[in-house]
Design goal:
- 2 copies of one chain form a homodimer.
- Chain A is built from 14 helices and 17 strands.
- In chain A, strand 16 (370-377) and strand 17 form a beta hairpin.
- The two termini of chain A are 50 Å apart.
- With 415 residues, chain A is α/β, with parallel strands linked by helices.
- The radius of gyration of chain A is 27 Å and the shape is elongated.
- Chain A folds into 3 domains: 3-172, MoaB/Mog-like domain (Molybdenum Cofactor Biosythetic Enzyme, Chain A), CATH 3.40.980.10; 178-255, 2-Layer Sandwich (Alpha-Beta Plaits); 264-413, CinA-like (Maf protein), CATH 3.90.950.
- At the A-B interface, helix 1, helix 2, strand 2, helix 3 and strand 10 of A face helix 1, helix 2, strand 2, helix 3 and strand 10 of B.
- Strand 2 of chain A pairs antiparallel with strand 2 of chain B, so a sheet runs across the interface.
């Protein structure tokens, strides 16, 4: 089945807002073995929408359109859909009732006459319910193509895609192949190293393919098995995943959509340990990521962003001697910070980072990107020097990832 | 001039990576008064690239293609370009020398035979120099359309766009109109309020247009003047910007690309004041944003992420009485935290936040999204309760923005 997406919006075509709907739709469809062939983006211009629908219609069995269903005058998709398919635009009672009910439910919204515009849909179309917003979607069939029209708001769109569009499309796919995928998330090795570690795992001729996707600084590897039956796909996938996991070992921190933060949180909860942080160059970003997880107060005690030497002395008990002899960016300072925060906060683990995020502040010995990370625990204190490449933001991100990954590896080793 | 963009890549069409090149190109072209009419995305598939070029060629005077110029077998753009335009693919000596020189310059890269593939370009094309990478771009003219081919790496693409593509396109625009824009960044009012405040400022019939773009939680308004001459555009723009600034008043925190963090940093530097933070529900995100700015150590002393009550008592001196009588999420606790961190760190300003980021932890009195922000300064201490709507992440982002905006407003009032 040949599928295209069309995103409509001046803010998209002008580059003010990045279109994420097309990617979300493609990724979601791929889970069901459906591939999008092209994405098209046009502005809020009736002629452009009409010609886009016409062109895509010629080469697609299904077109998923997002955007331009809103109540304001620059929302033109319904009218363009009617023109492009030779239909009239009529008020749909059910859509009108929905828009009115939803408007009165949503706070800060007044039911205004404009909302009736959202109830105008082309004749010979079926409604697509929108549980999260005022504008219903609709779908129709024209010259052999199914056309689906959804609002551009991602949270509304995704539900309508999942609940109506995908089941409808799947029901029309003649000989469905079963597709099973497993994704693993890695931190540490570079793409070329992952490529080498996974050599020979993919067997495309048997329907087993491998994708490697780098989203700085992590790598996602996805193994995808395609077969005639559910059992066939599983038989293909399971042994390959086992081999993949063995080869990737501790580089793999999670599977699917589980984040590094989630993994670390889960380990802390299981081990009933309390954490405190002392951050210098990462400026609070580690604490921010730890507390991204609801319920983090169960294992996170406190985080000290000790930017100044004064704060390192006052809050962490780092001595003048360490600061004067070795400097604030040193192995000695990092371990003093980690031990200091562990002791002062009475936590099980104290993690500290100190470094030079750049662009200024580096020296020949310690250029920008030099970072010391230290972990103080009941069974010892470990400190390591890292040299990260990149701009200020990248150095801070790498520092944070490395620190979280270190916590993960330490916690994994404890029973 | 009708302009289209084409982004090529399996990772884009599958939704693994969001295409940002198309938006970057459109936004950059718009600064010079050139509008993109459509964006198209296709995968690494020769037939799809050829048909995309053919279709876009029919409706565009210029096509800017990104992606698929790399050294690996799935980079097919050059070959597709040659086929689509009836040219042969030949090794271009200058491109080959460039690829070799760059490869040896870039670390961790070995000159391999594959790189010669990057030097294969269609006949009757002109090179587009790439100062930041191995693959040169090229451009050619086919059936009345200019086609530009650039690598997909954003940092390489943008330089080639700016230095070669845009000057070339502008030299071919017959009667160039002068365009001047001014953008202001706002925090606080909603889109409808901004709309009302700016009523009547745009005069499209005279060439003065207004765009409002919401990027949660800030709003960017852009005024754009188009005229035959430089003076004409300036005369149109300057008085309108003055009126706009007067109406928006203190909601406007910066213009152009200056961030809220930059604005606050600049004010701190000018006033020679030192800041310390005590964060609960924002979990270090305020400290992170303050320290995003290089040189922030000049005005940022320390940040305490006091997640537990124990930490609030130990580090900030919040009394048991306050915690037991009013709770950790209260006006009393927030002001005790702000005063506590100001005193303990010996800073000029102490800013504190405490609240319920959610989704759990709320009560009828204090539902999720309840946040207290307090600012302790030499001339007083102010505390305010906010009720933010949204999920955990949104509540934390709004808390951070509101806190930074409060610092900005306070600093503006001090001479």
């Amino acid at each position: 089945m040949r599928i295209s997406t069309l995103s409509v919006g001046d803010e998209l075509i002008c580059g003010q807002v990045t279109d994420t709907n097309a990617g979300t739709i493609a990724a979601r469809l791929l889970e069901d073995g459906l591939r999008v062939q092209r994405h098209l983006v046009v502005g809020d211009n009736e002629a452009d929408i009409i010609s886009a629908l016409t062109e895509l219609g010629r080469i697609s069995d299904a077109i998923i359109v997002t955007g331009g269903l809103g109540p304001t005058v620059d929302d033109l998709t319904s009218r363009a859909a009617a023109r492009a398919t030779g239909r009239r635009l009529v008020i749909h009672e059910e859509a009108r009732n929905h828009a009115r009910t939803m408007s009165s439910k949503l706070e800060n919204l007044i039911v205004c006459p404009l909302n009736d515009k959202q109830a105008m849909i082309p004749t010979k179309s079926a409604l697509i319910p929108n549980p999260n917003g005022t504008a219903c979607g609709f779908h129709l069939m024209h010259n052999g193509s199914f056309m689906f029209f959804l609002p551009g708001v991602p949270a509304e769109m995704i539900v309508m895609l999942r609940e109506t569009v995908i089941p409808f499309v799947l029901s029309r796919v003649p000989s469905k192949r079963v597709i099973r995928t497993v994704s693993l998330n890695l931190f540490g090795p570079c793409e070329a190293e992952v490529d080498e570690m996974l050599l020979g795992i993919a067997r495309p001729e048997q329907g087993l393919t491998l994708g490697i996707c780098v989203t700085f600084p992590r790598i996602k590897v996805t193994l995808r098995a395609e077969a005639a039956t559910d059992d066939g796909a599983t038989d293909l996938l399971v042994p390959a995943v086992r081999v993949m996991r063995e080869r990737l070992k501790e580089y793999c921190y999670s599977s699917g959509d589980v984040s590094m933060e989630d993994t670390v949180a889960e380990l802390f909860r299981e081990r009933c340990l309390m954490l405190s942080l002392a951050e210098s160059c990462s400026g609070g970003l580690i604490a921010k990521r730890i507390t991204d997880i609801p319920g983090s107060s169960r294992y996170f005690c406190e985080g000290l962003v000790t930017y100044s030497n004064h704060a390192k002395k006052r809050l962490l008990g780092v001595s003048d001697e360490v600061l004067n002899t070795f400097g604030a960016v040193s192995s000695e300072c990092a371990s003093a910070m980690a031990k200091g925060v562990r002791l002062a906060s009475d936590s099980d683990l104290g993690l500290a980072v100190t470094g030079i995020a750049g662009p200024d502040g580096g020296s020949e010995d310690k250029p920008a990107g030099t970072v010391y990370i230290s972990l103080a625990a009941p069974d010892g204190c470990w400190t390591k020097r890292f040299q990260f490449n990149g701009n200020r933001d990248e150095v801070r991100v790498l520092t944070t990832w490395t620190a979280l990954d270190w916590l993960r590896r330490y916690l994994l080793k404890r029973e």
